[in-house]
């Protein structure tokens, strides 16, 4: 049985169908990329999973629990966005520990977990810095650590690198991949950048107009695109 199983996810805005019967599964520890052009429904799909948007139809099962009727905070799903959305008045440690504090976890326990996460994202020397004192890449590493702190079952990353410079983007994508593998974290990573998708995924789901039009390993998608759309999008088309 799949760790994550989306069935028939359907979403409309006004009269417009934005997600059209999307099915998607993920195994535990899998890194899945949703790849598709702007407006195809990637963010909306993540928002449905995290509970920020409700569905017209469909079901979302995570670790054998149906999520659709649960509030976002009950879903054990973490999310990282393109904009870092850190708390500007809290330093790095307090940003990372925020979710644990809200859960009423003891200070010493929080301290220990925050220290571990600081090491994981290589920011131990910045633990007392404030967000405005950090680079974009460092801020995004804090955002990642902050999401990981509450030990979600699933992490959703919505174009987390797209506000960063090309070089930092490449480094950080490998860091995210390494972190994901090390922790065995199940992740859905949204991007419109085909190179990014090819580099970090176990499996790529190509989306167009509210549907998943092809899914497969990076190699399968690259070498055997099933339609002209996929071929063009993945850049393997002359
Ligand atoms: P992507 O993340 O792939 O760029 P989105 O999921 O943001 O795409 O958007 C999919 C479609 O849904 C777009 O046509 C967008 O304009 C529309 N949409 C997204 N959010 C809303 C909203 N809150 N109200 C109305 N339309 C929306
Ligand atoms: Mg989006």
Automatic annotation (TrEMBL):
Gene Ontology MF term list: ATP binding
Signal peptide stretch: none
Q: What broad taxonomic lineage does this protein's source fall under?
A: Bacteria, Bacillati, Bacillota, Bacilli, Bacillales
Which keywords does UniProt give here? Answer: ATP-binding, Nucleotide-binding, Transport
Q: What is this protein called?
A: ABC transporter ATP-binding protein
Which part of the chain is the ABC transporter domain?
4-234
Tell me the organism: Paenibacillus puldeungensis
